[in-house]
Design goal:
With 145 residues, this protein is mainly alpha-helical. The chain is 52% helix and 4% strand. It has six helices and two strands, in the order H-H-E-H-E-H-H-H. A two-stranded parallel sheet has the order 1-2. The protein is extended, with a radius of gyration of 22 Å. It starts with 8 loop residues before the first helix and ends in a 13-residue tail after the last helix. The mean pLDDT is 85.
Length: 145
């Protein structure tokens, strides 16, 4: 689910391989390469591992689904997945003058999605509410449980 319209560009394009191919041809022109073979490695970021959560938690149930999905991809590609730590990778390849990945990204994502959700969700909701409630705005609990 995209939390900001700007973040769904790839989702819109990759839903249809023909659209993705056409868009890629425009964006990458001569640099576009099509591969006829599977990738040499399967890397994961933040994926669960067996036994990472308590057995009775909702997270554990979700992990079972994710791990089953990953096992099917591994089987299809005849590869074993390997976890990637992007923070460590960034620290190994970045210019020493640049900040850590955490500092570089800081609040970019939450700020972007907050502004877009305010514009696309809260503002229309408040306007609709006010239209049928004498101009009042609804009470929004700032600390939802």
């Amino acid at each position: 689910m995209p939390l900001a319209p700007e973040l769904d560009t790839a989702g819109f394009l990759v839903r249809d391989p023909a659209i993705w191919t056409a868009a890629s041809s425009v964006m990458y022109q001569d640099a576009l390469t099509f591969f006829q073979q599977s990738p040499p490695r399967l890397q994961t970021i933040g994926f669960p591992t067996p036994g990472t959560t308590a057995a009775d938690s909702a997270e554990a149930e979700a992990n079972v689904i994710l791990l089953a999905f990953l096992a099917k991809i591994e089987s299809f590609l005849s590869l074993k997945s390997e976890p990637v730590n992007y923070t460590a990778l960034w620290d190994c390849v970045k210019d020493p003058a640049l900040p850590s990945l955490e500092i570089l990204l800081n609040r970019t994502y939450p700020t972007l999605i907050s502004k877009e959700q305010t514009k696309n969700v809260r503002d229309p909701f408040f306007a609709d509410y006010a239209a049928i409630n004498d101009g009042r705005v609804p009470f929004i609990d700032p600390v939802p449980k």
